[in-house]
Amino acid sequence: xxxxxxxxxxxxxxxxxxxxxxxxxxxxxxxxxxxxxxxxxxxxxxxxxxxxxxxxxxxxxxxxxxxxxxxxxxxxxxxxxxxxxxxxxxxxxxxxxxxxxxxxxxxxxxxxxxxxxxxxxxxxxxxxxxxxxxxxxxxxxxxxxxxxxxxxxxxxxxxxxxxxxxxxxxxxxxxxxxxxxxxxxxxxxxxxxxxxxxxxxxxxxxxxxxxxxxxxxxxxxxxxxxxxxxxxxxxxxxxxxxxxxxxxxxxxxxxxxxxxxxxx
Amino acid sequence: xxxxxxxxxxxxxxxxxxxxxxxxxxxxxxxxxxxxxxxxxxxxxxxxxxxxxxxxxxxxxxxxxxxxxxxxxxxxxxxxxxxxxxxxxxxxxxxxxxxxxxxxxxxxxxxxxxxxxxxxxxxxxxxxxxxxxxxxxxxxxxxxxxxxxxxxxxxxxxxxxxxxxxxxxxxxxxxxxxxxxxxxxxxxxxxxxxxxxxxxxxxxxxxxxxxxxxxxxxxxxxxxxxxxxxxxxxxxxxxxxxxxxxxxxxxxxxxxxxxxxxxxxx
Lengths: 264, 266
Prior knowledge:
The complex is a heterodimer of chains A (264) and B (266).
Chain A: H1 2-10, H2 12-30, H3 33-48, H4 52-57, H5 62-65, H6 68-100, H7 104-108, H8 114-147, H9 154-181, H10 188-204, H11 211-214, H12 224-230, H13 235-258
Chain B: H1 2-10, H2 12-37, H3 42-47, H4 52-58, H5 68-100, H6 104-108, H7 114-147, H8 155-182, H9 189-209, H10 227-232, H11 238-260
Helix pairs in contact in B: 1-7, 2-5, 2-7, 5-7, 5-8, 5-9, 7-8, 8-9, 8-11
């Protein structure tokens, strides 16, 4: 419990900064919604002048896209990217920092098992992410009710927002796994940014049609268009995500318990 | 000169990874072009009518994505983002790592001026950036050439956008090094540098969304040399080149001045 509280305190400042940054991004983008809605209304009028065939060409999703939730799913890609960086940073640093800051022998000579250390740290990271998401959700809800021009489904809004949390959990697990596998990480940011952006770009270039490729990037596990249409998540991707999280956490425990840790 | 070679050697591995990364990105990005190019002309006429903010949300742009050059102008944004992240972290870490890794007293008790050390380090970072830029240029020319079936003259365009990217790489490198010189805590330097970078990237997207923010385009470097503008609209804009040069000069100056007076944390 001491380790847990200590880690929570150690990451308090960074959690606060990340939460505020995420809220600022939502605020910045949502403040454009009214002008966007005006553009969208005008365009819908233009669209009515086109023949049916061309309208179909542009895709059925356009109707969804021009609503406030469509707009929100657009900016959610950036929010999720930032959230993923936060989670990955957290995961990569929380275990590896002991070695880097030469406090590993202090911590690991305490009368607690390594499993207990790992659990406490995992839990602290998890709670930090939960706190970030609670504050983010609260702020985003307030913002979206301020700028809305028509009715929208609040349930769908929550479902969309929760995708960030799921992506964060994925990156947290992957981050911890990477950090216990590498013998020493000099710069956490290099590792975490490189991983997150690698997956982000991977997702960028494997969008339409190719189902198999979507499994490669966690950013593609939650398709906002699908959520808006079916008000549910895609089960196969939920399972894939859960499997990845469980496997990386289990592997992290397994490696960490046996890991050779250099003292000072 | 020893410091320069030592830095080159210690960044060799990371440069290799980054180069492989940018190469893979060009390969996978161009692989996606197949899908776009088959879509044909029909949609372009329609896209022209869509308001700019809607286009930003839908991921369309003014350019003709069925042409290699048009598609490249979209791909360029992501390559630029990657290159500048590399540059910002490089500039920040190359200065801050001595204090972070507790090697600062070893290095700074050598009979060398601090300015000499900084110069050697910045030079090493500069060479790294040049290599990264050249590798990007070569991968782009090779792969765009491969997909360029209409025989568009694009190599000149690519080279020009790479010049723009190079200026921004240098800009973000000195952003990183200036932060590293000014800021006391060496651990948070790289985070702050990339934070500034991501913020300016998001700002450039926000500008696309809302025309009222157009005046902010001087603030975010991601708006300086957009591929679309560089390729179809008269090359590098001299105003932005001047702004970049001034900012680079000021930040390089800040790096030297503050580092010379820095209270090193041993």
